[in-house]
Amino acid sequence: MKVGGADLSHGPVGGIHWHMNVGNVVEYIATDEGRQKIPWVRVVSVGQGVVTEFRSPNFTNDVSGYPLRRMDCMDCHNRPAHMFESPNSAINLAMALGRVDASLPYVKTNAVFALTRPYTNEVQALQQIATFLAGQYPEGRNDPRVTKAIDAVQTIYKENFFPEMNASWRAYPDNIGHKDWPGCFRCHDGKHTTADGKNTIKANDCSACHVILAQGSGEELNQLDAHGREFKHPGDPLDKGSLCHDCHTGE
Predict the structure, then answer these.
(1) CB–CB of 186/203 below 8 Å?
(2) Nearest-CA neighbor of 40 among 67, 77, 12?
(3) In this predicted structure, what is the pLDDT of residue 156?
(4) Is the pLDDT of residue 9 over 70?
(5) Reported pTM
(6) 149, 107 Cβ separation under 8 angstroms
């Protein structure tokens, strides 16, 4: 990650923390309470006195009617605590750590399905998770792999879902990154342009924030490139305008 710094005391100026650079002022308006919809952005280069405004398509509103916010740390680091893991991420980690046995057929699909059903309370959730997972395999709870998986999935639920309070990863967007939620792509969607159309807030420019040293599998991962590689999406190629959260929803 090209984290960079807001000033030289924190590292090279640039990277992700360019947004907090003392020489820049980044301001925006949001049209929703959760600040997930950002149709207007203004960048002021303090030293040069250059002001650049970007608008998303069809946003012609008078910006004076909206509260103006200067971007700060919390616009990305909005969940420094109480990190609700998405089902997809939580099951991936559990499988990587051996808490869920990957030899069980379709275990990830089954586990994510069990986690994402609507439950009214924790007791009901834990009971139905156990019943559902046991029912997906011939040996059921007589198979130690199944009982271990049930325990792991129930633990994930207890740590990340609170149905009585309607709290889970769905309720609280995480603006760090851009996989399960828009995050960076709230502005970097390739659609925010200046009035003359000559400048755009870039999207899908992975190398702006990442240095991809290697990718792929097997021997490909040993082919390191310190200058970074162009990102290649696993599987089928994507349309140029595709954004991660279009497909990755946490489930």
Answers:
(1) no
(2) 67
(3) 97
(4) no
(5) 0.79
(6) yes
Cα separation of 173 and 182, whole Å? 9
Per DSSP, what are the bridge partners of residue 186?
none
C-alpha span between 160 and 163 (Å, rounded): 10
Q: What is the pLDDT of residue 68?
A: 95
**In whole angstroms, what is the distance from residue 175 CA to residue 78 CA?**
6
* Closest by CA position to 55, among listed 73, 36, 68, 42: 42
- Indicate the residue type of 73: C
- 215: how many CB neighbours lie within 10 A of its CB? 15
> Is there a contact between 155 and 113 (Cβ–Cβ < 8 Å)?
no
Among candidate residues 177, 247, 250, the one with its CA nearest the CA of residue 210? 177
C-alpha dist (Å) from residue 67 to 32, 64, 76, 220: 11, 8, 19, 49
Tens-digit pLDDT profile for residues 81-100: 778 899 999 999 999 999 99
CA 53, chain centre distance (Å): 26
Structure confidence at residue 200 (pLDDT): 93
How large is the average pLDDT for residues 137-160?
95
